[in-house]
Amino acid sequence: MTTEISPEPASKTTTMTDAVTSTGSKVTRVLGALSLVSIALLLAFGLLVSPPEIAQGDSVRLFYIHVPSAIVCLYIAFSITLVGSIIYLRNQSTFWDLMAGAAAEVGVVFLGFTLVTGMLWGKPTWGTYWTWDPRLTSTAVSFVLYLGYLAVRRLDMDPVARSKRAAILGIISFANLIIIRYSVAWWRSLHQGQTLDPRDTQLDNTMLFSFVLGVLALTMTFAWLVIHRFRIAWLEHQLEAQQLELAIAERTSQGPTGLAHGGA
Prior knowledge:
Elements: H1 16-19, H2 26-49, H3 63-91, H4 94-126, H5 134-153, H6 159-186, H7 205-263
Helix pairs in contact: 2-7, 3-4, 3-6, 3-7, 4-5, 4-7, 5-6
């Protein structure tokens, strides 16, 4: 039997590790199933149904996963981290602190996937896996910044101070996403500009459907992963709180004599 985790304090008589056997729930099971189905459909449409592009040929099929992955991490994942960081600095919300961290952790995975698929697409298109193009360079900088954000969240220090430092870095790191967004317009770039221009999408109906399907599939996958990662983070937070309470209770139960011996 699985128990859904909600952000509520554990009881004093039952530890979180005893009460919870899974981070899954009905919602995550349905969301996971929908993610698998949508990814299967994406592979079918992206690899088999959609036509090759006139200039790029079959290499354009990477478009259906590369661009949706970039949208998910840059516009969804790191926006959640930004919002969570701001709210945490305003009211010390543990929920939003952990949500910001969970979104950033999954977002970094998607960002890494974006860089890899971009390199694979760049080889047949530009003749090289990597070039110090403004968009590629700024995207790599964001990857490093958010890795640093995750590293700060793992520092061995006071939890409140650690969360505050991470929140500040989460806000600062988001500024680089603006550079990524407008890098093609601000500097001369090999990277193509906006593909989905409302006036001219440059995509036929099948290609456009495959792209939209890619966005939906990766968004649902992202949501599924973030929910599980948040629940794990909440368990870790509750466990740390319980361990602190037990340590204080044990030290208090020793009385003055125990404290004296403990300090000798």
